[in-house]
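DM from R.C. (forwarded with permission)

"hey, sorry to bug you on a friday — could you get me a structure for this? deadline for the figure draft is monday and I only need the backbone to look sensible"
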Amino acid sequence: MKSRWVSGNRVTLLINGDAYFPRVFECIAAAEHEVLLETFILFEDKVGLALQAALLSAARRGVQIDITIDGYGSPDLSPAFISALTQAGVRVHVFDPSPRLWGYRTNLFRRMHRKIVVVDGNRAFVGGINYSDDHLVDFGPTAKQDYAIEIEGPLVSQIQHFARSQLLIGQGEPPRLRDRLFGREPDVPALPELPAAGKAVALLVTRDNRQHKSDIERHYRIAIRTARHRVLIANAYFFPGYRLLKQLRKAAQRGVDVRLILQGEPDMPIVKVAAGLLYHHLLSAGVKIYEYSERPLHGKVALTDNEWSTVGSSNLDPLSLALNLEANVIIRDTAFNQLLGEHLTQLMQSSCKQILIGDVAETGLWVRLRSFLVFHLLRHYPAWFGWLPVHTPRLTLPDQAPAQAGGDHVNEGQVS
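My reply, with the result:
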């Protein structure tokens, strides 16, 4: 899908599941025609059950509903949970449920990591929040800090068009050789553009393994390269490629206030270890690093100067930048930029520890060797990961997919 900038949008920031879930469920409750939903994780907890209840109610009054879950991210939904949806008419699709070997999924890469909702073609949600109760503050010390946006206006038509096209790709016939070679996608009828609902100019940017392999990273690099005053990135899983790191260093060296908010209390220890390998390289160029220490950070948001912002599902790590299917919205709007900036600034002041160059002194032969190895990994990993098999995304119905009944819904080591 070729995305384009469209004006006339209203974009509302939703912080954590406490703001996100009520709005999504309220909109589904008011749906009249169609609900399209994609998520990496759907757990059978109080949030998942509330989503199920909202979908069941909508389906029973005749709303057409398609939900897509990732086969790796959502492996433990019970047959009873799925059958209640399908018997009510909800079409449940499982992304790429590869055959299991000794109970384990054989394809762990190229996951469907997007989090998108479109209701009646006039309202959409995009962000990083999954359907699980660890996105609610009352979950406790391990509740995740995260973000999404609600969108009204012409961009919603593009998001609806995209979501429909992904269903066709996943369910369609195997593509012809020339379509596979040239990355052609199925034709989806264009949708009429919605009237203006606000002042924001916005763009849907996606990452796939066909035509849009580096679009999200490219937009990040352009925004950093053109920044004149500030760059502020809050990202849960931070281990980007060499070119993005280079732009961060160059921005700081030309006097831009570059700040990163990263995980200080990670959900997986390796996340902090990996990001820590980059600290000295960034700090020595003037980049400021803050570790969010109140609870795990799951956000994927950023802003530059006084207008550009992005919210979405894409981490800045090899999985998101080179393998997963992702979706971000980029917003050009002063008011939204200011609101997000004020929130992240408050986060840095109240819940973060600033990391100083003295905290990560780089000395010794091993440290220099380690830095050399990390540098070359970052320089070449997009090409290396490109060697992994590329295939057309496949959606199957739950009764065709490998199923597990019940069980603990926590999937250890899962980057969400």
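R.C.: lifesaver. Confidence is low (pLDDT under 50) at residues 400-413.
me: no worries. The radius of gyration is 21 Å.
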